[in-house]
Amino acid sequence: MTAREEVLARLRAAREAGKPASPVVVTREFRTTGALAPGSAEVLARLDETLTDYKATVHRVDTEAGVADAVAGVLSEARSIVVPPGLPGEWLTGYGGEVRRDGPPLAVDELDAVDAVITGAVVAIADTGTFVLASAASDQGRRAITLVPDHHVCVIRAADVVCSVPEAIARLDPSSPLTFVSGPSATSDIELDRVEGVHGPRRLDVVLVGP
Amino acid sequence: MTTVQLGMPTVASDPHGHLRGTESFPKAAHKALADTQLRRNLGHATRTIRAKRAAVVGEVDDWEELRRAGESIKADTMARLPELLVQLEEQVTARGGHVHWARDAEEANRIVVDLVRGTGADEVVKVKSMATQETGLNEALEAAGVAAFETDLAELIVQLSHDRPSHFLVPAIHRNRAEIREIFLREMPGVDPALTDEPRRLAMAARAHLRRKFLTAKVGISGVNFAVAETGTLSVVESEGNGRMCLTLPDTLITVMGVEKVVPTWSDLEVFLQLLPRSSTGERMNPYTSTWTGVTPGDGPQTFHLVLLDNGRSNVLASPDGRQALHCIRCSACLNVCPVYERTGGHAYGSIYPGPIGAVLSPQLTGISGPDDVNASLPYASSLCGACFDACPVRIDIPHLLVQQRAEAVAAHTRPTAQDLTMQAMAIAMTTPARFKFAEKALGLGRVLAGRKGRITGLPWPMSGWTNARDLPAPPQETFRQWWSRTHGDTQRSGAGPSTGEDA
Ligand code: SF4
């Protein structure tokens, strides 16, 4: 018997031996919609709060036209940045440093040498202060670019902000890599207190676009 | 025609002694209790986490509904485990991954060692994984001349201090900041001698220490939090970004998962990604959760191997009640609320699975070889106060499993020998009378002990010292604690009451 056959045979035997008296009924009585409407001013305010609570710095702009100024502001000290191949050029018009597009892909050491990265996000969760990066989205790009640079600037549009985790999961396509980000890199390993700044980006700025 | 002999559920192999300690719980606990620094560290850390957990769980008004969903999704998974694993294998393979099956720890280690050798690499970076701790993969790699670098801060502390993990989530919970500073100064090459014990500075030292390793590693090794059968998607939940480094930068990724980590559908994560972070670190969401499906051209490792590990899980699955222990999502909430764990720490349990869940999981994984098996003492490492059940995000009825395993041990005469009567797990935690009272009522403890005959002829150890000499009537009115007090005197020690359980 191969290991595969053996393990499966054991598990089948065990599954029968330990079978519950009555069939399992899966109960899903939890909420699948959040308390606040997606994209609403209320849900954005909540996201602002939860992001800030986990030490991201939030910059509010009313419309997409305001993004360039906000980006320029947070990157005033960054000499060079990396951006995913499809990042809207309009977001960068106020930035004066060197912009490196990740296409063709930069080497790890090149990523290590840039000061910051800017991306969009596919969805954000107000209840938890989370945004999700999808590798397949051209304004987010492969995972390494948001991991190696020490400063991440993420632009989140109101239309992509939901209230709850179930709403976000329903919008996501897991066939390409996803990264759920909630605040800058942190650890709770020393006396179970959260401290920011370990291996991922130590500085996280969010530009939140909307009402 | 040949008939294929079916595999039978089988207990774990434990080549490196990670599922069984060298002494029984009461002996090990006794030593731990004498270590006042350890008790201070644990008390501080568990108090911190209990307060955080209570606050973020309190924010979720459908918490109980989520717990019930988590419980039933896991029960459903166990009822379909072989089919779900085959589906997972198909999906991972279809997306360019390679799936391997391992009967036991040695086989899993052999598979991983061979895969690493095949890449020509002589070092690997690892993200914290219980499965590879269980198999002793680091030892196996070392024997094969491969250096394994643990990258989680707490695992790094454990590795640098040649220690053993004592908690799922925070394996170095038994260390305080001053001790961690000393370990770094002593063991970390090139560390700044002016390092202070400020947690941020300590985290920065770890960053500097591991940075080069991450940027140059060829092989990463990880575990899994949830593996989605429907889509072949794997996920790792973490905080520091070391997981992202290991999952993203190497050319080859090898992931080892216990078979119980599978979940049926992608949407099931809507439940577990709410339950896990709030229960574990007491955060609304952990800083990073990564998901990946097979291999993605142009993003991350281009070679991906998934090793599916049995190692005793089939033995656990074969028990109708006991299989609940496989539902565990390793949040460690039950450890943080357990008055026994808070006083003894994780090492006393011998196994890398400590605390209440470890006390019911380890003996089922290893089986009990006889009365002297140290794991036979684990079901007694509890006061049955019930806090673990209240805290468990997937509603594992740990107190029930503990009582059941005690009863089974008595029936099989595999209870530990009389010399272990010094066992004080009861007394350690009986300083919280209110909780104990709750537990004995909820559990019908007297009934369990008395069995069908209505007489207690053989009390489970540690009380067996009394019943060996006397045949006691079951105490129908009296609570267990009253009975204990009456027959044994008042064991409560004033001033030693733990400050646990406010959150449940
Ligand atoms: S048994 Fe429950 S509370 Fe304990 S670690 Fe597992 S999931 Fe968490």
From TrEMBL, chain A:
Transmembrane segments: none annotated. This is L-lactate dehydrogenase complex protein LldG. InterPro entries: FTHF_cligase-like_sf, LUD_dom, NagB/RpiA_transferase-like. Residues 110-209 form the LUD domain. Coiled coil: none annotated. The lineage of its organism: Bacteria, Bacillati, Actinomycetota, Actinomycetes, Pseudonocardiales. It comes from Actinomycetospora corticicola. Pfam families: LUD_dom.
UniProtKB/TrEMBL annotation, chain B:
GO terms for biological process: lactate metabolic process. Residues 325-396 form the 4Fe-4S ferredoxin-type domain. Gene3D superfamilies: Alpha-helical ferredoxin, NagB/RpiA/CoA transferase-like. InterPro entries: 4Fe4S_Fe-S-bd, 4Fe4S_Fe_S_CS, FTHF_cligase-like_sf, Helical_ferredxn, LUD_dom, LutB/LldF, LutB_C, NagB/RpiA_transferase-like. Residues 414-486 form the Lactate utilization protein B C-terminal domain. Keywords: 4Fe-4S, Electron transport, Iron, Iron-sulfur, Metal-binding, Repeat, Transport. GO terms for molecular function: 4 iron, 4 sulfur cluster binding; metal ion binding. SUPFAM superfamilies: 4Fe-4S ferredoxins, NagB/RpiA/CoA transferase-like. The keyword tRNA processing does not apply. Residues 87-295 form the LUD domain. PROSITE patterns: 4FE4S_FER_1. Residues 1-22, 484-504 are annotated as: Disordered. The keyword Cell wall biogenesis/degradation does not apply. This is L-lactate dehydrogenase complex protein LldF.
